[in-house]
Amino acid sequence: MTGMGLRTALLAAAPLLLMAQRAPDPLLTYSSQGWSETDRNLWYSSSQGSRLMPMSWMRALERHQDEVLYLAPENIERYRYLPYTTPSGGTLPVGFAEDVQSDRRLDFTRLRWLPRQGDSEPWIGFTCAACHTNEVAVGERRLRIDGAPGMGDFQSFVEQLERSLTVTRSDAAKWGRFAQRVLGARDNQRNRRRLGEAVDELLAYRGRISRMNVTRMRYGFSRLDAFGHIFNQVSLFTRAGTPIANEPDAPVSYPFLWNVPQHDRVQWNGSVPNRRINLRQGYLDIGAVGRNTGEVIGVFGEVVTHRRSFLGLLHPFRSSVRVRQLIGLETMLERLLPPAWPEDMLGRIDRAAAERGRGLFIQNCASCHQPLARTDLTTRFAAQMSWFPRNAPPHTIVPVTPGGPTTRPNQSPGTDPLMACNAYYAAAASGNLQGYKSGGTPLGEIAPVLDLTGVTVLYTIAGEVGELLGSAIKIYEGGTVEPRVDGTSRSRRVRRSGRGDPAPAPAPAADPTGPAATNAATGPLPSDAYPGLPPFYRGCVNKNWGGAEDIILGYKARPLTGIWATAPYLHNGSVPNLYELLLPADQRSDRFWVGTRQFDSVRVGYVTTPSNENSFLFRTRDDAAQVIWGNWNGGHDYGNANLSERDRTDLVEYLKTL
Question: Which of 406, 479, 601, 618 has the most CB atoms in a 10 Å sphere around its CB?
């Protein structure tokens, strides 16, 4: 081997050497799910195009209330993100990824604060692992589970991050420390002025997003209204003169990701299809690319939209989305196994009770929750949907009524309707997207946000057609698309104007920094089948959806393999453990604490007592005993009152085996 070849080989092996030298944590073990340590590092650190803040700013930022760095482990723990040592020896929370790409096609995240600064400044953003990785604990022992619902309090994390940056900008002492950390040897008054202008730009941008996402609902740990955040981000990217905000008041648990590539539909409400394009030696799931593109938009991705071409020609949107990375991350999920119950840590399974529970499961549950072997990563299955009834007068739609009957002949889920309603009922100003076609119909001045999102995703993917085709060719030839951790900028073609500069982003029709209009509705209602349900949602549940096959007003059942590792339960995380899920709704806890990783092996869920000063009290009813819609814990009751105590414990024991 030549000297140059040896040097190249050593540089390539350096991350692996650092990995091998890293001291293992004796109290942390990893669930055996078919991934290597290399796989895990890629999952934790591969950027998907999310751009929250320049990396140097994030590392320099202090909390608003003291001098503790925002990325310090003790602060990150407050929001329940997991600590992580990267292969290069750095420290970032799991799923906080460095994004290095040219920003010449972007707008809001195209910031400069140094003379002759390049166009590939590293930013920090979220990747899948931030919301889909978790740990369970017994005492000091911890078990890491990849693809499990995360425990992060995204809402509070972002609020406090923006507050910290705002206070830093106005506090002279904090600003001095921040600027010195960011600028280093180039710290001078001129560069501090430039840095201040750039920080002001980012704060203005983040402020617009925050105003769109104002909500009375506190999510707490383990939940996020992902659709709401995606919808409002899309509404902002349309650059409408007065963007319409849809209150993100329907938080859901982060879904668990194992077996997801085998579904025909995904999301809690089954609204997004997986669509495989078969290639000679594999397939490309274009549905998954679209779904994950929407997810990036919701967590700090940027899209630059524009008006429809006068001639109707395809004119893709510019964006920060990394399509090849998304395909690689989805490919990794194809080999992620559900976690097996760890008997050495959580206790031995009572096999006799589990066998009795198996019979009960087959009799009562398997028609909706298709059994699937833990090692089965190939069987495809269709969504089993539980619908809210259509074409029915209001008094017959009883499943969403607290205290309603427990017999469900129509198999309606009976669970909180807000997430399902918001997905199809939210509307916003189309702005730049007016006239684009969704399902063959041009979008009007006001359009369903689901349609606006679909158009945004489609034209964003079109802007990454090179990455899409390159991935397809690699799969066609028998290769595997793998994500990578950023370290150098990727090469990207930039559409230029006549003077050689990137084409400017279109200016908004009006200043979008003012208060947004809102679709949220509140107020008293006459007595009806939905006590306390705001008119906006009553209209959604009562709406005559006709026979439209693309309207899915309900929730999706799926195989329960690995379900023990996914507490709390129901789509909105309103039931703390599997045992309570088998109780009639009026016997379930109407409040419980979340935030601890300590595991209850008997009821199968997290311990529900407060763990420290920032535990979160989840409530299904307010002080006046009225239902908090979005948090309702009813439903999923298909005869629970008929189960004996032994039936319930036997079923729980069986669910541990899945």
Answer: 618
Residue-wise burial string across 184-206, b where 16 or more C-beta atoms lie within 10 A, e elsewhere = eeeeeeebbebbeebbebbbebb
Report d(CA 572, CA 575) in Å as an integer. Answer: 8
Residues near 564 by Cβ (< 8 Å), separated by ≥ 6? 339, 341, 578, 604, 655, 656, 658
In the chain, DSSP finds a helix count (H) and a strand count (E) of 18, 26
Q: How far is CA 562 from CA 34, 115, 374, 384, 654, in A?
A: 14, 53, 8, 18, 11
Q: What does the pLDDT read at residue 412?
A: 63
State how far the Cα of 421 lies from the Cα of 554, in Å rounded to an integer: 8
First to last CA, the chain: 51
pLDDT in tens, 589-622: 999 999 999 999 999 999 999 877 689 999 999 9
CA–CA separation, 149 and 339 (whole Å): 12
**383 backbone dihedrals φ, ψ, rounded to 5°:** -65, 135
CA 644 from chain center: how many Å? 37
Over the range 11-21, which residues count as b (16 or more CB within 10 Å of their CB) and which as e?
A: eeeebeeebee
Which residues of the chain, if any, have pLDDT below 50?
A: 1-21, 390-410, 488-536, 538, 542-551
8 A C-beta contact, residue 543 and residue 583: no
pLDDT tens-digit series, residues 498-517? 223 233 333 333 333 333 44
Which one, of 596, 600, 597, lies nearest residue 612 by Cα? Answer: 596
- Alpha-carbon distances, residue 510 vs 90, 239, 431, 507 (angstroms): 43, 8, 11, 8
